[in-house]
Amino acid sequence: MGSVRPDLSCRVYPEPVDHFDRLPDSLILLVFNMIGDVKALGRCCVVSKRFHSLVPQVDNVVVRVDCVISDDDGSSPSSASAAAAAAATDKSRHPISSILRLVFTGLLKPFQSLSQFISASASPRRVAASSALEDGEFDQSSVTHHSPTQVLKNFNEIKFLRIELPSGELGIDDGVLLKWRADFGSTLDNCVILGASSVTHPSTTGNNNNTPFPDEQSTNNEANAENDNGSMPESFYTSGGLKLRVVWTISSLIAASARHYLLQPIIAEHRTLDSLVLTDTDGQGVLCMNREQLEELRVKPLSASSASKRTLVPALNMRLWYAPHLELPDGTVLKGATLVAIRPSEQHKKDVVGSDGNWVASAFDEPYGAAARMLVKRRTYCLEMNSF
Fold this sequence. Notes:
By secondary structure, the protein is α+β, with helices and mostly antiparallel strands. Among the domains are: 21-67 and 147-166, no CATH class; 168-203 and 231-248 and 274-387, no CATH class. The protein has helices at 25-35, 38-44, 49-54, 77-93, 109-112, 124-134, 148-152, 214-217, 220-224, 234-238, 241-262, 264-269, 291-299, 358-361, 368-375; strands at residues 60-64, 67-70, 100-107, 144-146, 160-165, 177-184, 188-196, 198-200, 275-280, 285-290, 316-327, 333-344, 381-385. Residues 70-143 and 205-227 have low confidence and may be disordered. This is F-box protein. Residues 199-232 are annotated as: Disordered.
């Protein structure tokens, strides 16, 4: 019986096909646009030369700011942390904290490459740092700070930009509702503010320990009366209720104008923008700009306030609606509910209840959109405010 000899002939095997490389750039860009998050895109751009060249072409970007520190902070991580803590403390003491500079903290080496798209490829050191990030390792010595302007400077095709702050600027008491939405061009186009002294959600009905504000305590009977004609009770003027609403309005306008001021360099550098939204994770305030408004700011520079780093607020016409007790369709109850619709005095007056009233009712997500629609049916109070 003869032995079987192994086949020692040389055979050429084809290299394995990477089917991912066969995907067209347009499809990969579609995936990147669905990712959106600028940190995730920063990691993607160190994966390969192809990704590195495609990430700058993304047109839908979301920038989530990790923290906010003051202008006079140092460059070290420890000083940044101290400044952030000081800013948080200051915010709790006063409804309007000092104008802050947006920075990114806790971003490791691979994300720094997002600010250096110009290089041909990622270095091994950056890739190693990326692995450390995925493994949950964190080296405090590698913490760096990047403003949104720096992070976005090498994106070439941004059309839809959303920037999210870690929290709203206005320090309010627990249980108090305060939301605003503002549209800007070179100056304020309109602003809608919704506030309430206390909010009771359906899940907490019957177990709410919120102490009513003075204007609520004296108006409970009026709130429950079936013949409520939408008028403000006399106690609203004498107990500080109206003064509180004025403070809410001014604070919201200052917060909105400060955000608008900070967006100038981004708007100037990214002429492809169709939509820009600057909001916060608390859902307290939203600043919006569409393509026409963005172009207006480029053509007509904003007027800055001489007192601080914010856009000058023009003279305003305001309409105010108030309800001491407002029960929404989903069962949420607002006490001392107040809606304020604001437009510059020089603008053509438009109806906020009729066909153009959508800009008020659509300012907030549900259930607060329903609150706006209910409030505009009540008696309207007109106010004026000088430029500041």
